[in-house]
Specification:
This protein has 383 residues and is α/β, with parallel strands linked by helices. It is built from twelve helices and 18 strands. It has two domains: 159 residues, NAD(P)-binding Rossmann-like Domain (Rossmann fold, 3-Layer(aba) Sandwich); 205 residues, 2-Layer Sandwich (Dihydrodipicolinate Reductase, domain 2). It starts with a strand and ends with a strand.
């Protein structure tokens, strides 16, 4: 049975979700709803499919959302509203399956697990690349072991500082001095660490190669211990280009992450708001000098048949994706999740992240491979 899909938000990533759905999914209706109606109309027009239309709705108005969601089977939330519970709460009230990109950082959303189960819905948080693909690779690695000791999740994003508004916000989010989610999970406790903590080289497939990484504020560190029992250590690492890291150090040093309001010619704003708007308006040059890779790496260490083993996973994409690599690496997993919900392949009910669901890793990896995203596995004994 063909399903009706509501896509909320069609920025850099949302537009790619819609594109992948058009190319790979069976559905009767896809409504693209964005705060910017002109943008939604353009995305729908560019896709040129009679099943796809556009609209505009207030995603902060719960009553509006409940009414709108009631007309669809699956809600795909591509908005970058990290602190809002409205989308999830509305989906539970409307009794509609829900999937988003940013929910893993908001652990409070998992509190709604019982309500979602009572409504009979699946609500999947943060099914992108990181979190998302990384979580499923970690789950698969853990399933190979008798005991899991340590999980290291790493993402790398080569290229410029401003590939899109959402990705810029993600970058700023990572280096915010007031970010309480920058943690390491160690022996049952979450330990907060400062920006630029834990420098370490991590090897990715070429052309990325070895990358200098730091501990990042990412949802994997919060959710993997919840679902992978017995794990003693979890950390999430990330890489950006050196000039991006240098810029973030300078912004950090000179207080640009401050959220204290200031006035510029009688206009009130915070230094962080000014910084973000300036970077969005900045005309970034020399884009062709980067490979624009967005690769993922996961290491899972534990015991198998009495031996200490490490399972290593890499997720790579076609290099010809260029500047849209980060968007596609985030959008494709979400599209796959939507289609798994549509076909009933996901039967887990409640609120959960990917590793907490019955998504079969190999089936998921096969779907990624159809789009050119390869998941590579290797293992080695740890002495």
């Amino acid at each position: 049975m063909e399903k009706k899909i509501l896509l909320l938000g069609c920025g850099f990533v949302g537009a790619e979700v819609a594109r992948d759905l058009r190319e790979t999914a069976d559905f009767s209706t896809l409504l693209i709803s964005d705060i910017n109606p002109e943008r939604a109309e353009k995305v729908a027009s560019d896709l040129s499919d009679e099943r796809i239309s556009a609209d505009s709705a207030d995603v902060f108005d719960k009553n509006t959302m409940v009414s709108l969601m009631g007309e669809f089977d699956i809600i795909a939330d591509c908005t970058d509203i990290r602190d809002s519970m409205v989308g999830l709460e509305a989906a539970i009230e409307a009794r509609r399956h829900y999937i988003n990109l940013t929910g893993a950082m908001d652990i409070e959303k998992l509190i709604l697990d019982n309500e979602a189960k009572k409504s009979g819905i699946s609500a999947i948080l943060s099914l992108g690349c990181s979190p998302g693909i990384n979580n499923i690779m970690a789950k698969h690695g853990a399933s190979q072991l008798d005991e899991v000791e340590r999980i290291q999740v790493t993402f790398e994003g080569s290229g410029g500082i401003v590939p899109s508004p959402g990705l810029l916000e993600s970058c700023l989010h990572q280096f915010d001095i007031e970010q309480p989610e920058r943690v390491i999970y160690k022996d049952g406790e979450y330990v907060e660490v400062p920006p630029f903590y834990g420098e370490k080289m991590v090897k990715f497939p070429e052309p990325a190669g070895e990358r200098k990484t730091y501990i990042m504020a990412h949802g994997e560190t919060r959710t993997l211990p919840r679902y992978i029992k017995g794990v003693k250590h979890v950390e999430t690492r990330g890489f950006w280009e050196r000039e991006t890291i240098d810029a973030m150090r300078a912004f950090y040093k000179y207080g640009f992450f401050s959220k204290d309001p200031m006035k510029i010619k009688n206009v009130s704003m915070t230094p962080r708001e000014f910084l973000k708007q300036h970077l969005l308006n900045w005309d970034q040059k020399e884009e062709d000098r980067w490979d624009w890779t967005s690769f993922m790496n996961v290491e899972v260490v534990g015991k198998k048949d009495g031996k200490r083993m490490k399972y290593i996973y890499d997720a790579t994409h076609p290099l010809e994706w260029g500047k849209i690599a980060q968007a596609k690496m985030t959008a494709v997993p979400m599209s796959i999740g939507i289609q798994m919900l549509a076909t009933g392949a996901i039967k887990t009910r409640g609120v959960f992240t990917a590793e907490g669901s019955d998504i079969h890793p190999k089936a998921f990896f096969n779907e990624l491979a159809k789009r050119g995203i390869r998941v590579l596995e290797r293992k080695e004994q740890v002495f």
